[in-house]
Specification:
With about 230 residues, the protein is mainly beta. It contains no helices and 19 strands.
Length: about 230
């Protein structure tokens, strides 16, 4: 194109929109609009002067002060600022994106936060629920999971399924012994808000040296409720 080209810095992006004029046309709509004072207009490759050859004052259209002839090529070169704050920053600790994010393909590295009774217990990429009878309820962007038995700690034992590994049998099993490897405080935050009994169905509980298991006020610990200690 003829005329002085604008000098672009590294944070400015530009696009060009071309239209073919009709006979006597003066008013042109600019697709997508433009920022005022950030547009250049060319007629058949010749750059026009703002205010002398055209006006562009509303961000949506351009008016030629001298009517075009049929077949004239009118180019609109539109500039826009590119702000780093508007981009996704690589390896940033936290970023906020307003609006929906649509991903076509595999989203790698993503994880879901996992909560128990409102407390965050960790993050994972895959949730695998073992056992029959688990149910899921979706409310908005929250999934409530109800686990029915087979969890190895929600009932009096771990469920035993038939040979198809999905149909539960009337039987369950309990390990003879268990090791306590971390400090454990059995208080109202873990064992009910009021006076309650804490029952262990494992007859042999071995507490690692240096580890403390503390039964809180109002709590009563009962061991070997099934009386299988002599097995």
């Amino acid at each position: 194109m003829i005329g002085n080209q604008p000098s672009l810095t590294g944070n400015i992006a530009a696009k060009t929109i071309s239209v073919i004029a009709t006979a006597g046309q003066t008013l042109f709509s600019v697709s997508g609009g433009y920022n005022i004072n950030q547009i250049n207009v060319y007629r058949n490759g010749v750059r026009l002067a703002s205010g002398r050859d055209y006006t562009a004052s509303n961000g949506a259209s351009v008016t030629l002060l001298s009517a075009a002839t049929v077949g004239d090529v009118i180019d609109f070169q539109i500039f826009d600022d590119f702000r780093v704050a508007d981009a996704i920053v690589n390896a940033a600790a936290t970023q906020t994106i307003n609006g929906d994010v649509v991903v076509t393909g595999t989203l790698s590295g993503a994880a879901i936060g996992i909560q128990s009774a409102g407390a965050v217990i960790g993050a994972a990429k895959t949730l695998n629920f073992v056992g029959a009878g688990n149910t899921f309820t979706v409310t908005g962007d929250t999934i409530d999971v109800s686990i029915a038995g087979g969890g190895g700690g929600g009932g009096l034992g771990t469920a035993i399924n038939y040979s198809n590994d999905t149909t539960p049998t009337p039987f369950s099993y309990i390990d003879r012994r268990v090791n306590v490897t971390e400090n454990l405080l059995l208080d109202t935050t873990k064992a009910g808000e009021s006076d309650s009994y804490i029952v262990s169905v494992v007859p042999n509980i071995e507490i690692v040296s240096g580890v403390a298991v503390t039964v809180g006020s109002g709590k009563t610990m009962i061991i070997d409720v099934l009386k299988i200690g002599d097995l």
